[in-house]
Design a protein that fits this description.
homodimer, 349 residues, alpha/beta, Rossmann fold, 7 strands, methyltransferase (chains A, B)
Chain lengths: 349, 349
């Protein structure tokens, strides 16, 4: 994610992702009220957000969670109880935690800490975490599936930058990696979470079927439009075609069926809820500029690390031209990207 | 502290502070071996560094601490035991934690987290901390003593930017604030530390007597040389004299006697060691440039917040001229600044 608070920053270009917290609010409140089931002798609650970026979309979620826990554990008979909240903001080690800290809302009711590192591995002490949250982050893979960049493999993803439905082997390689990564994420949280603790996951996803003639998803937008811009630039000689062949984006948006199958394999959590929602944030990207800024904030570092920073402005100018010429992508109602809201509960040990 | 890794950064100008970890090493090792006395059923050790800045001087200390704990708890009879270390790096919320995270040594044997906020208050969960460390940080006050900036007070510090021995009321106001702050620091750690946990404090200090004709301390350098540069600039009309009158630096270097008296008042810790050491880092500041760069890395933000950033280059050029003309300050052997090494143990509850 782009750092800081400038024109291309994640902070100023993450409205697409931010709407999901409103969708999740009543569910988080209800699940905490009815199912959070932990030993509260110490009056201490540890909450973690896995994939917090610079915090802009994280802070409202943390507020909802702490208020719901306060409501439950500070009942009218028990108003004197002071709950202590410790919130661990996690993202990769190069994340802009300075911006996160200086953006913390005033008068927060929790102690904040940053925990850098990949959320597929262990980050927190054993049996220390009461509530885990992750929004619009689990699509990130820990690594690219090797086969897609391997010229000798039948899953070689020549001329494309992300999986597309018409290349089944590429799709399968991405799905395998996604399954492995979700497995590692849950294994790590299994050790870190206390019995009876809750986990809320908001995972961007795609429906089993959508019509590419009249509809799209975020991943299709990236494969089809952004990918073809890179191919065009290679043809113009900006860089070699092999450079495009070796570039693949490290994220995967599952279908609901795929995600459910993966989650069901884990033995340490029960699936309390699994709900599919439309993404309300899509209506914030109705202009060419807004849609380009959203994609740039998320992908800029990956693109410039591979192609160099000198190509980025041209790439997104070209992208905007193509977007303008593709009216299907400019109507937010055609965006069939969905969000899966999952609530997991750590089984009693 | 100046952020980043540039020419004026703390990273590149903190050799003066860095020598103390070598002084502390054998003492930390011995104290952990003989006195760390905690329930290790969980095999989890939490360590915190209060006032870590960008980590440059913190990482070697953490390595010493984790190695000593490993040596003690992974005895020959018990080599299979895997210890988990969680290290909490603390500094103020505007500290450059991004640089700290990206500077972490490779292959560290601990999980790192950043905990922003003033160390005079609570930062960590109750009974969670096994080892506390703080080097060259406790001299920072939580606030300026009010009287020194109050025109109506007999402790008004007109025309000076730090206490000097010849203004007893100003000194007393600074000492009062220092005592209050150390008290708050220890109260917070009392709640956070487990019984039998250890705390190592390296506190910059000044001897009870030194001769200003032939010797100096860091605080005297700042009061006498840097302060007089600001007075000269006010006389030249760069800013008003009132601007200098209202500027006071928020740190205090105690004498050993003062620090011991303050620590002895606390009922929750026993003083296991209290040792006075020369500061080996002073020999790294033998040139005008090195000494100016050291003072600038520490004081730049405070100066520019008050006077504006446009005066900073002129100020340090003037400082270097004065330093050049004051040979006493250029011989590191004349630097009588000392370091007090304190080991405290949390009493059994």
């Amino acid at each position: 994610m782009n750092a800081g608070e400038g024109a291309h920053s994640y902070v100023r270009n993450s409205s697409y992702q931010s709407g999901v917290v409103d969708v999740a609010k009543p569910i988080i409140e209800e699940e905490i009220a009815t199912k959070l089931d932990i030993n509260t002798l110490q009056n201490r609650f540890c909450i973690a957000d896995f994939g917090c970026s610079t915090g802009y979309n994280s802070f409202p979620a943390i507020e909802i969670i702490t208020q719901a826990i306060n409501k439950k554990y500070k009942s009218p008979e028990n108003t004197s109880k002071t709950l202590e909240f410790y919130v661990f903001f996690n993202d990769v080690i190069t994340n802009d935690f300075n911006t996160l800290f200086t953006s913390l809302p005033p008068h927060i009711n929790y102690h904040a800490a940053a925990v850098p590192g990949h959320f597929h591995g262990r980050l927190l002490p054993e049996y220390s975490l009461h509530f885990a949250y992750s929004s619009w982050s689990l699509q990130w893979l820990s690594a690219l599936p090797e086969a897609v960049a391997d010229v000798g493999s039948p899953a070689w993803n020549k001329g494309e930058i992300l999986y597309t439905r018409d290349r089944k082997l590429v799709c399968d390689a991405y799905l395998d990696q996604f399954e492995k990564d979700i497995g590692l994420f849950l294994e790590s949280r299994t050790v870190e979470m206390v019995s009876g603790g809750l986990m809320v996951l908001l995972v961007p996803a795609v429906p089993d079927f959508w019509n590419p003639e009249s509809e799209y998803t975020v991943t299709w937008d990236i494969s089809y439009l952004l990918g073809s811009c890179l191919v065009d630039m290679a043809k113009k000689g900006r860089f070699s075609e092999a450079k495009v062949d070796s570039f693949n984006l490290p994220y995967y948006f599952p279908t609901p069926e795929q995600l459910k199958a993966i989650l069901s394999k884990n033995q340490s959590f029960t699936i309390e809820r699994f709900e599919i929602r439309d993404n309300p944030g899509k209506h914030t990207l109705a202009s060419v500029n807004a849609r380009a800024a959203f994609l740039r904030a998320v992908n800029e570092r990956l693109v410039t690390d591979h192609f160099g920073s000198e190509i980025i402005d041209e790439l997104f100018e070209l992208y905007m031209e193509k977007l303008e010429a593709s009216p299907v992508f400019l109507n937010p109602d055609n965006d069939k990207t969905i969000v899966i809201l999952v609530v997991l509960k750590r089984k009693l040990i």
